[in-house]
Amino acid sequence: MEVDRIASDSENVAVDENDKSIADGGAGDAAGSHSGRIKRKHKKYGRSNSKDGVTPVAPLPKYRSWKNSRRPRNGHGRGLPKKGGAGGKGVWGAPGCELLEEYEEDANDPNYDSEAISNGDIEFKQVIVEADPEEIVRKSEPVILEYFEHGDTNAAAEDFLEFVTPKRSHLVCETIVEIALDHKHSHCEMASVLISDLYGRIFSAKDIGYAFERLLEKLPDLVLDTPDAAVLLSNFIARCVADDCLPPRFVQSMAEADLNAHARQAIHRAETLLSMKQGLVRLDNIWGIGGGIRPVKWLIRQIQLLLKEYLSSGDLAEGMRCVRELEVPHFHHELVYETVLLAVEAINSGVEEQLCTFLAELRRCVIVTPDQMDRGFLRVLEDMTDIVLDVPLAYIMLDRFVERCQQKFRLGEEVLKRMPTRGRKRFVSEGDGGAIKDHVFKLRE
To answer: Is pTM beyond 0.85 here?
Structure first.
């Protein structure tokens, strides 16, 4: 230990003397600069790099021994061990390097196993397990129903890719059409868009054709649940041809095949749709336009025709069905407005009773919300100054119709509060007790 300490001190002294001689030499050159060119010895600075988040290491003091240090002594580097700690005497490599080496078994090893996996005589191949058709249909139904809510085809495609295999992809197209047959035309339009977007990603034209062949075979059973299934299936086939998802020769080949009566009807109608003038353009709108994007004037016209048809037929169930097919829940206040206006203009107790029953059924089935109902009545009250110019008895008719409606269902407090109370004084005397009003009603009836 004493010998090592003396050697270390001698090294430190030698280093100090070298530094001092360099400093003296520099001073002497500066003093004699008039005789020749100045010679300066540039000082070297160690460069440090902190890209990997390593903080530069401060230099060691001179009194510390460099005997066992693995750091570079040329002033360069970041002060890290050479070769990542893998160099030096008695070192076998970097930590963890034994895990990266490929071990080859020796056949002469007593522990050699001829049936081991690592021998090299076993070949691995990817095996895709095909799911059962019932399982694919069961998993596809919630994805399709969820798509009908959000309308995002990319999200639906990602969900299908999790469990659909190429050999079972036709089941997805078949399930989409079957579920859409039980829904509205707007959902059928969404189903056609989904098939078009999944084409080339989930299934091919061959898969779509095979799915429609299976649907045509099952059409007699589908008609039991959906009477117009043949018409709807023909629309789907024609729309897929228009969207270039199905070749036109599919319809021609199926027309020559031996099919059941319902399937022949569907194929014949699909041929008719495709042979129409500008048929491919018209097929883009084969399912109609959604209620939210229809023109307001068109909707008002449809509501007026709906009410006239209901008054002529008296079929309440058909009227409810027509209201649902409009698919405009945000525009139901216009339906209430037109109904009340028609009751005021009719001046007929039978028409009033029929229209009052219509509104009561809409309220009972929750087709028209209470907010939309009150909004329709309030719109009539706001326009009474203009309505009374065309219908002089408008205030009387409105008062009587509101009383009828109040007996069958409850109106909002805002409607009852804003009901006019002075309008009927123009036509009825205050002291007759309503006899003149009743006499006029009897004459009108």
So the answer is: no
